Amino acid sequence: MSRGKDGPEDVDATFAEIVADLRAGGFGLPEDDTADTEDTAGAAGAAGPESRKTPERPAEPPAVETPEPGWRSGGTSWDTTMFSDDPADDDEHYIPPEPPPLPRPKLGAFLILLLFLAGLFLLILPGAIGVGPTVATPLGILALATAIALLLLRVRQGPPPGADPSNGAQV
């Protein structure tokens, strides 16, 4: 793999050289090995990897005990969670109050609904009332635009009437 004049010619050889320099400085070795290499690095710099001790590893891994429920496991075992009664079945749950009744629609709401339906009717079926499409299309678009404008004008911009403006959300 040749990278030209910007990169190294042999990436593997360069990587092996970097790793050897780091290991000579004590990086990448277990804690037991770093104490040995610091002592022997100054005295025997050319001794090589034979002077390092390799840590002894146990023949078989230690037996893993099943952990008791603790702070990381959530406090209950899997069997208890899956096979116990459902906590949502209890009778002590929140019952919301009845919602307030919807306000009676006013005359403006009926006017908006009438304009909206008339605009749709003029755009979809202009021939049903004997008007040509050249007259019905602009009238239908005008009726729909008026209905949407009146609907947007009716949207409340502030707090509801009777609300205390100084009693808002507090962070």
Task: Give start-end ranges of low-pLDDT stretches.
Answer: none
Radius of gyration: 41 Å
* Terminal Cα span: 61 Å
Instruction: Specify the biggest β-sheet.
Output: none
Residue-averaged pLDDT: 75
Morphology: elongated
Number of helical stretches of at least 4 residues: 5
List keywords for this structure.
single chain, 171 residues, mainly alpha, 42% helix, elongated
Describe this structure in words.
- This protein has 171 residues and is mostly helical.
- It has helices at 11-24, 31-43, 78-83, 107-124, 133-153.
- The longest helix has 21 residues, at 133-153.
- The mean pLDDT is 75.
Q: Could you give the topology of this structure?
A:
Layout: H1 11-24, H2 31-43, H3 78-83, H4 107-124, H5 133-153
Describe the structure concisely for a colleague.
This protein is mainly alpha-helical. The chain is built from five helices and no strands.
